[in-house]
Design goal:
flat
Length: 268
């Protein structure tokens, strides 16, 4: 009888070693080549915008998603139906389409509604008229990612909260804890262990989907690479560097999140 295959826990991460060798080889190639070094220095200027869009968008999406999840778990049928309507509609629209809608339809509609509501204040000279161009394309992109991802994140929160044993919640009620105290002290600390892995996956996915903001001209990694390639006709070199930077960001984040998950499991 053949020996049982080794478990995943004991396996050496050969994929990580191969990825590290490729990353090191690419770094050496960039350092040794003036052309690749120039492309890297140019494209890297967009890292700050990419990180800003991802972090702010994910933070807002998580806050909104948690609110939607709590609505879906509330005792009110109306709140549950509103939450389900939001999740199903938003999840059915591609992120790119949502990005265009928010940028070119939602933003003008918001400006028109704001001006209509604040017309008395504008007439009195207390505030000025809001124009569509006052809402930057950067924030339109962030709001699109926020709305798009909040629907998925709300389901992550809802599943994590439901994973907590009802007996513990009943015990907390018997101790006289309020709803907020039960959530803060009993439910959320246990649910976060279930929530963190899929939430981390969504964060990594948003890093990649942040490249979509380039269609609005936002100067992220992809947009700067696209402009540089169009001007220099160095498409292979430019998009190789763009892919390299995104891989460094996403793989690095994935490893950091796995380490955090392992620490939480150990602490439990």
């Amino acid at each position: 009888m053949s020996a049982a295959p080794s478990t995943a826990k004991s396996e050496f991460p050969w994929w990580l070693a191969a990825a590290a060798i490729l990353a090191l080889a690419a770094a050496l190639a960039i350092a040794a080549s003036d052309l690749y070094a120039e492309v890297f220095a140019t494209v890297a200027k967009g890292i700050g915008i990419t990180v800003f869009v991802t972090v702010v968008g994910f933070a807002l999406a998580s806050a909104l998603g948690l609110g939607i999840a709590l609505m879906a778990l509330s005792g009110s049928q109306w709140l549950r139906q509103i939450a389900r309507f939001y999740v199903e509609i938003i999840r059915g629209v591609p992120i790119l389409v949502l990005l265009f809608w928010i940028a070119f339809a939602g933003a003008p509609a918001f400006v028109a509604a704001w001006n209509a509501l604040t017309a008395p204040l504008q007439s009195a000279g207390l505030i000025g008229e809001l124009l569509v161009r006052d809402v930057s394309l950067l924030w339109r992109a962030i709001m699109a990612l926020t709305i798009g991802y909040s629907a998925f994140i709300s389901e992550v929160f809802r599943a994590g909260i439901l994973s907590v044993e009802k007996g513990q919640i009943e015990a907390a009620k018997a101790l006289g804890l309020t709803r907020v105290q039960r959530f803060r002290l009993i439910v959320f600390p246990q649910a976060i262990r279930t929530i963190l892995p899929p939430l981390g996956n969504d964060f990594v996915a948003m890093v990649k989907d942040s490249s979509l903001v380039s269609v609005l001209g936002v100067a992220d990694i992809t947009q700067i690479g696209k402009v540089y390639a169009a001007g220099s006709f160095r498409f292979f070199e430019t998009y190789s560097i763009v892919a390299y930077i995104y891989l460094i960001l996403t793989v690095g984040l994935s490893l950091a999140l796995r380490a955090l998950e392992k620490r939480l499991r150990t602490a439990a």
